[in-house]
Write a structure and sequence with these properties.
The complex is a heterodimer of chains A (about 230) and B (about 325). By secondary structure, chain A is of the alpha/beta class. Chain A has helices at about 40-45, 70-75, 90-100, 105-115, 130-145, 165-175, 190, 210-220; strands at about 1-10, 15-25, 30-35, 55-60, 60-65, 75-80, 150-155, 180-185, 195-200, 205-210. In chain A, a hairpin with a 2-residue loop joins strand 1 (about 1-10) and strand 2. Chain B is mainly beta. In chain B, the strands form two sheets. A ten-stranded mixed β-sheet of chain B has the order 2-1-5-7-9-11-13-15-17-19, covered by helices on one side. Classes of the chains: A alpha/beta (about 230), B mainly beta (about 325). The complex binds adenosine-5'-triphosphate and magnesium ion (MG). Adenosine-5'-triphosphate (ATP) binds next to strand 2 and helix 1 of chain A.
Chain lengths: ~230, ~325
């Protein structure tokens, strides 16, 4: 189990994530919903150690609150970024091999297939020549190849064409079925329906938790700015 | 044409070639075109069909090299040039004159090898002329020792005639860079293209100065200057990339990035000058520490900070 306890993240002198208590379980897709600016990405970045935070992050009983990004990744916690970085001089193959837990080119090729990218893209550089949607799919493949215990996916479906949506959904399900706890930040209805459980955030706090479809209704019909 | 190889130079030749044989396995058996020089001694020279390689040693010990590529030919294997100094102390001055005939296609790979440097200087003055429609690539790879003092002064003037294409790749990644002072001036005529790329890794007290000026003289001429310099320790970088747009619809772009660690100091001056209102010249220059987003991404993939930096720097200099 991955637990947040009284988890807070400050940015620019302002408290953005305002004390969250939440548990994420392995083998489950936990959807996080919330309006733009509600603090989802800030919470995700705090959880993997990019931003300093207060409170605790406990991974399978180990307090990793003071761990570096690298040590959290070694413990099995990683993220697919909402806006992934570009790299000059690094090919998709290099990046996926770096990410791959078993450093296997066979695994790399099959992960690429899972996200619906052609094999020749392996030799393309991860610079501006890769489209936004391609870059996001490579990011998802990289996370899958890490064989993480817990993976935060920050809007993995944004910028993905509708025809490729099924592929994205399938790799997320494969990640869960491999035993990972998936923390899925999303705005899309199709993604929400993949969830086993869902949480709504508003203004840096959790304001609802439960069955994904119910939570979505609550989110849509709430009169105040949840 | 018969190879020129003096028996008494065989050992020096083999020592030099050993540094590059992994890149060019064909180099050892003498089939390749070009020349191998230690200090100012020409150990080997070969002029395959369509190319004439000539050389003389001047009184001041400078070596004049003259390379002519006939018009209308296509050379498939690279022309190999190797300028080394195996001694610890030495000075090498080379005046290089390359002419590529009309519509010919040729690629040069030049290795500069100074593995035992205590006090070495290498001065290269190049005159390169691409006739109309010619295409030439020039790859210069430096292999330097880990210590000592190296002075490197490559300079030159390049003329790229109408419809021709000149591409140059300079890499200095292994060993100390030394005092580097690169100064190139390139003139591009109608519909011609030039691409200049330099990748240098500076360490310790290395001083890296690069000045490249591209004159887009012709209509529809194009020029790109790309520079990647990584500076560590107390090294210093001063990079000037200059493009002057003169011809109608000429286009140029300067892309300069310096990544700085430790106490290194960097300066970048992209100069873009459109003398003709119909020309368009742009630039981007970035100086700074390593990109944080890239670093974070690789650490989230399970790499330590040091491993991540090596990967990012390796990519920039690749
Ligand atoms: N460095 C900062 N300084 C001040 N405010 C910040 C800083 N970084 C983020 N914020 C604010 O924190 C809030 C939450 O941002 P965050 O990116 O976490 O939202 P989000 O829920 O992921 O939104 P979206 O759905 O648009 O991705 C925003 O109002 C944002 O302006
Ligand atoms: Mg966000």
């Amino acid at each position: 189990m991955l637990s947040l306890k009284k988890f807070k993240v400050m940015r620019g002198g302002k408290e953005i994530v305002k004390g969250i208590d939440c548990d994420f379980h392995r083998g489950q897709i936990h959807v996080i919903l919330g309006a733009n600016g509600s603090g989802k990405t800030t919470m995700a970045n705090g959880m993997i150690g990019i931003y300093p935070s207060q409170g605790k992050v406990i991974l399978d009983g180990v307090d990793i609150s003071d761990f570096t990004i690298y040590n959290r990744a070694k413990m099995g916690l990683t993220i697919a970024f909402q806006e992934p970085a570009r790299f000059e001089g690094l090919t998709v193959k290099d990046y996926l091999l770096i990410s791959s837990k078993d450093k296997s080119i066979h695994d790399v090729e099959s992960a690429l297939k899972m996200v619906g990218l052609p094999k020749h893209i392996l030799y393309q550089e991860m610079d501006e020549s890769l489209s936004g949607g391609e870059r996001k799919r490579v990011e998802l493949a990289a996370v899958y190849l890490m064989k993480p215990k817990y993976a935060i996916l920050d809007e993995p479906d944004s910028g993905i064409d509708v025809r490729s949506f099924r592929k994205i959904a399938d790799i997320i399900l494969a990640l869960r079925d491999s035993g990972a706890g998936v923390i899925l930040i999303t705005h899309s209805q199709e993604m929400i329906s993949l969830g086993d459980v869902a949480t709504i955030m508003a203004d840096g706090r959790i304001v609802g938790r439960g069955d994904p479809t119910e939570i979505r209704e609550l989110f849509l019909n709430s009169p105040c700015p949840i | 044409m018969k190879d020129v190889m003096d028996e008494k130079y065989k050992k020096e030749y083999e020592t030099l070639i050993r540094y590059i044989e992994s890149d060019y396995p064909e180099s050892l058996d003498g089939r390749f075109a070009g020349m191998v020089v230690n200090s100012n001694r020409v150990l080997f020279a070969n002029s395959p069909e369509g190319i004439k390689v000539k050389w003389i040693i001047l009184e001041d010990n400078a070596l004049n090299v003259n390379i002519r590529v006939d018009p209308g030919i296509r050379i498939d294997t690279p022309v190999h040039l190797c300028f080394g100094i195996l001694n610890k102390i030495g000075k090498q001055k080379i005046n290089m004159d390359i002419e590529v005939g009309k519509d010919s296609v040729v690629k040069f790979v030049s290795h500069c090898i100074f593995p035992n440097s205590v006090d070495i200087s290498h001065l290269m003055d190049a005159r390169i002329h691409l006739h109309p429609g010619a295409r030439m690539e020039y790859h210069e790879v430096h292999i330097h020792g880990k210590s000592g003092h190296i002075t490197l002064v490559p300079s030159g003037k390049v003329r790229v005639d109408a419809g021709a294409e000149f591409k140059s790749y300079f890499t200095l990644k292994s060993g100390i860079a030394g005092d580097v002072d690169i100064d190139y001036e390139i003139s591009i005529y109608d519909d011609a293209v030039c691409f200049l790329e330099s990748k240098i890794h500076g360490r310790e007290k290395d001083k890296i100065k690069i000045k490249e000026s591209v004159f887009l003289k012709g209509n529809n001429s194009k020029g790109i200057i790309k520079t990647r310099v990584v500076l560590r320790d107390y090294s210093f970088g001063d990079i000037t990339g200059e493009i002057i747009g003169e011809g109608d619809n000429s286009k140029g772009h300067v892309d300069c990035m310096e990544v700085v660690f430790d106490n290194a100091v960097a300066k970048a001056s992209p100069i873009v000058f459109a003398k003709n209102p119909k020309s368009k010249v742009t630039h981007e220059a970035a100086i700074g520490s390593i990109d944080r987003k890239q670093l974070i991404t690789l650490m989230a993939r399970g790499l330590s900070e040091e491993e991540a930096i090596d990967i990012i720097v390796g990519g920039l200099l690749r």
